[in-house]
Amino acid sequence: MAVVADPRDPRGIRYPLASMLATAVCAVMAGACTFAAMADWVRDLDPPAWVKLGFTGKLPVPSTLWRLLTRVDDTELSVVVTRWVRARTASVPVSGRRWRRVIAIDGKVLRGAKLPDGRQVHLLSAFDTSTGTVLAYVQIAVKSNEIPAFTPLLDLVAAQLGSLEAIVFVADALHAQTAHAREVASRGAYLMVAVKANQPTVFAQLKSLPWAQVPVGDRRTDTGHGRRETRTVKAVTVATPGGLGFPHAEQAVRITRTRTVKGKTTREMAYLTVSLPAEDAQPVDLGAWARSEWHIENRLHWVLDVTFREDAHQARTGTGPAVASVLRHAAINYHRSNGEANIARATRRANRRSNDLIDAVTSSYTTTQ
Fold first, then answer.
1. Burial class (CB in 10 A: 0-12, 13-18, 19+), 256
2. pLDDT tens digits for 227-258?
3. Residue ranges per structural domain of the chain
4. Residue 67: which of 1, 7, 3, 139 has the closest Cα?
5. Which of 269, 328, 289, 333 is nearest to 108 (CA)?
6. Whole-model pTM?
């Protein structure tokens, strides 16, 4: 934490920067959802725990912690904390010849947070579906959208992983952009993206393919929560002159989802392109990668809203909204690195075992739990 730039005036510093930031990180890992809750968490600890965090004598009042967290550089803090969590995360076992790291990209609006002009804060995140951790995020610029933030997000992911070689990025139809496809390919990675009416030419081409003549490549049926869903995957390599009208697209994919809920059956079709050839991406792989796009919704956004009440947090000053999001991401990443599937339960356990949590965060031994 000490490598993060200190935004405070040196003449008024009373508490070490690393101690303040470690306090915020630990508090959110223990379930604190607001800046006030972070301050309450540290004040409820015993004196030996205060010493471990670097406080001797006095503790910072809530306003002191709040002033720091609304001024610190959120991007720098995110890089430092994510690098720390990745250093203590066990490597993912590789299984199968075609195994690839799949990273889902999607945006989320922090509904309770506001910017000075009244706009809501909007973040674009990269989620590693194999480890369930957030690798990086970019805050959407004023009067903009997710599209210009795509390349800066790739830069941050590359900085964390060292290279994007052979990684598969999955995204929704908003990112079916020719510039995105070329950028991903230039870095040695691959893009699997849904195509809708925002790319009318490619969408029409995909729909007009002779799908009735394409054999079913994979079919899976799941049941649960009163619903039965069957997903049928068809994939075809377009060998006509010019191929698909989308850069680096190797295969056209159609996924048919048939759902039956309370006796009522609905069917929808999704069209996608992927920049991997058939020998490296079979229909069973394509179906799994398409479903992994929803991991960022189910395993990240849902947890942020339900467990950490992100949409209810009305952080509106300086970098406060983004810093609060960084701390929540760090908490999820930390608990997932410990093999926790239920983040809510993990935060409750961490709160009951505050000393163990502080030891894990302040120790230089990467495997301390």
1. middle
2. 899 999 999 998 765 678 889 999 999 999 99
3. 10-83+317-362, 192-286
4. 7
5. 328
6. 0.89
